Every structure is written in C-alpha cells, then in structure tokens.
Amino acid sequence: MSEKSTWRNKVGLAEMLRGGVIMDVTNAEQAKIAEDAGAVSVMALERVPADIRAEGGVARMADLKIIEQIMETVTIPVMAKCRIGHFAEAQVLEALGVDFIDESEVLTPADENFHVWKHDFKVPFVCGCTNLAEALRRIGEGAAMIRTKGEAGSGNIVEATRHMRAVMTGIERLKGLRTEELMTEAKNMGAPFDLVKEVSETGKLPVPNFSAGGIATPADAALMMQLGAESVFVGSGIFKSEDPEARALAIVHATTYYEDPAEVVRACKGLKGAAMPGIDVASLPEEERLATRGW
Amino acid sequence: MSKRVGILALQGDFAEHIEAFSSLDCTVTAVKRPDDILECAALVIPGGESTTIGKLCQRFGVGEAILELNQRGAPIWGTCAGMILLAKEIKGSAQWRLGLMDITVQRNAFGRQVESFETDLPIEGIAGGPVRAVFIRAPFVTRTGEGVEVLARFEDKIVMVRQGNLLATAFHPELTDDSRVQQHFLGMIEAKQ
Questions:
Q1: Is there a catalytic annotation at residue B57?
Q2: Which band of pLDDT confidence, cut at 50, 70 and 90, is reported for residue A295?
Q3: Is CATH 3.40.50.880 what the domain over B4-192 is classified as, yes or no?
Q4: ipTM for the complex?
C-alpha cells in the first residue's frame, strides 16, 4: 500500500539535511549563492533576523512571490517561516509547496498560548526550543525537526550554546533515571510522558536536532556541531557579513569537518571580510529577546 | 577479516546507514577523507542533497578517491542523492557527479516534499516479499544503458538498478528495520572476493 507524507517521510527529510548548512535568503540571487556554496537548504524570508530586529514592526510570513521565485531558482529544499500559532500562514505555505515550514520565534507570534498542531499537515515542520522540555512539546505537536533557538540576528553564539547545552544535558539526565521516576519527571518538565520515556530509553531525540540563532563564523559552526548539533542554520550571519560568498563556503567547510581544527583553520583562511556586527545579548531588554517567544 | 563498509559521511543520513549495517556481518565506518575511503572494501553514498555532496566531493578530493575505489572494483551503493551522484547523466542539470553508471536520472522526479511517500516494493533477486520503500523528494531513472539491470519499478518508473559492482536505489532502505537490501549489497562484496 502506498501512503503519502508519512511521519517517516517527514523526519526522513530532516535526516537528509544532517551535516549541512541551512541559509536564510531574501531573494533568488541570494538563494543561488547559497546553493552554489553547498547549502543543503535555504530559508526564504522577507528580512533576515538582524533587519527585523533593527527595523521593528510586525514580522510576518514572507511575500509568496519571493518564496516562489526562490523555489524556481534552486533545486535544494526550500523552507519558509510562519508565525507561532498562525496555522493559516502554514496552510498557505503548504499549498504553495514549500518543503519545510519553520514555526518561528523570529516572526511576531500570532498566538500567545498555542502553537500550530503540526500533525495535521503534509509538510514537515521545524520548531525552535531553549531546552529539552520545549523540544519534546514541539515534537508532541508534530515537529519533525528541532532547532535550538539561540538569539536570532544577534551574531552572538552565547544563547545558541546555552540552549544546545540545555538540550544535551537534559537528555543525559533522562538517561540516568529509572522507569518509575519518568512520570514525575514528565510532570515536572511539562513534557509528554511517551517522549520523555523514549528519550530516556534511546538517549537521543526522536527527530534531528539542529542549531540556530547567532552563528556568524566557521568556528561558531564547529562549536555547535561539537556540542551535538546535527546541522546548523545560519540566518543573518551570511548575508549581513562583508563577504557572503566566501563566508557561505567557509561555514559549509567548517560544518563538514567540524571535528578537525586544521580544517576549520583552512575554512577561516577563505574569508574575505568581516563577520556581521554582533550584539551583547545581556544588554538586550527582555522584550527584544526572540528566544523567549513560544513556550 | 570482516568486510569494511564505508559510509560516506560528508552530508546526509549517514547515521541511519551506519545503524542499518551495525548488526550485519561487516565492519561499518563513517568516512569523509580520501585516505579513509580508499581503505574500504565497499562504499555507500547516502541520501542527502546531491548538489551539496557533489560540491564537497569536488572541493576535498573525495570524488577522486571514490573513482579510484571504483577502479579497484569495490562495490558502491548509492541511495537517493547517491543514485544521482552515480549517474552519468542528470536531466536538465550540469551539477558535478561521479558519472559511473550508464543511466540518466531525473531529480525530484515525483515532486516536492509534500509528494514524498512510502510503498511496498517488490525487488528482483530479493526474496521474502516486497520491501517497504521510503521515497523522499526522490529521483527515478529515465534511461538505462547497456549492462544496466533494472531491479525494481514503481508504477513503471525505474527506482532500483545494478551495473556490475554498482547498485543504486531511489528510495531509502536505511530508514526501515528491514535489512534485505543491505544483505544484498554485502552479497555483492562476497561475490567479488
């Protein structure tokens, strides 16, 4: 019997993207640069997170014309973002034919209480998290891929590190628990029991875990991969730098051979200009922190 | 000595391939450097993005190592992106490829991700009934040259082929618990030894 868009199809696509770099792009020309540098996928956006942060206002799903142009330009999978809880934006993106939807804290949330029920969709979803419990809530709703949030548009890796460490430490902790302890743990975490049990038994998330939010250099990418990320999302880091083509190539290089410092050195030598300007996240007022959006 | 099967780990679902071979009669290892590739008795090119894996093969000397491994007669199996990279021709694309198999493939031939599917697929030479085949943004073969054997079709589309020591599947046996395709590949190494 044939069946379309099964859970295995959705998680399978996330698995195919492992060991790669997913790049934010705002037009077809940037998408081509990303594909030529070896990106495994592109994220179609109206504005990169650094510009959303600078310009303020409400950030929504991208213009469909831009997404379509990007889909026509590249052969790699195209992702697009919808607002947290905005299931109608998600329906539109699915109907347009994007390959992955990011229900993203980078856009202005449409619902302060509920995320999208992602099991209802044929298209797979990726969602951000800041710790293991949040990751398991999103997977429970149907996310086929998780990415740690970091702090998008900051050019600062500190939040990405914090979130990745929180997820990995959370997994280690569950592995050490006895079966009778898991229900209480699920209650305390606020995460679905079945998934808590699964992680405790397998020692890993049931879907791939990528890293996002603050990656600006090849060494940043190598850091996140060594901390346990299976791929990296680079948002503003490429097209807000002085050398997008060279930087895209260098970050792909460092992600591929992340465990070998000599290769990361070679990757860095290919850079031709400065990284994007960074922000001290500690100086950001609470309401300007994107990672606190969603729950 | 047990057969050393390398899984090309530049990018893609190499971890699933390693897992799928781990309980079988072989030593399975992730490889992403030319020297490591040349130490293998056989190689698997996993699913992933064929443009990405192709560019990495080209940039880091990995492609040359795979071509040399092929010269030595080592069996090579490509799944999905791996099938595309093994093909001589890719419809409408000038992207880099190994070009070892005399086939033409069409990328994303069944459509975009929302068209991805799984099905029960009978395979020539694999006993025990059909395998559950998972297709993800999958290619299919539109032309086969001389010496290319068609092992499976889905609705008339060619989705599994063999040419000598080369095996290609448009689907992902590594995503299921059924290891018959892996066993078939290990049989190709034994037949050679």
A1: no
A2: confident
A3: yes
A4: 0.96
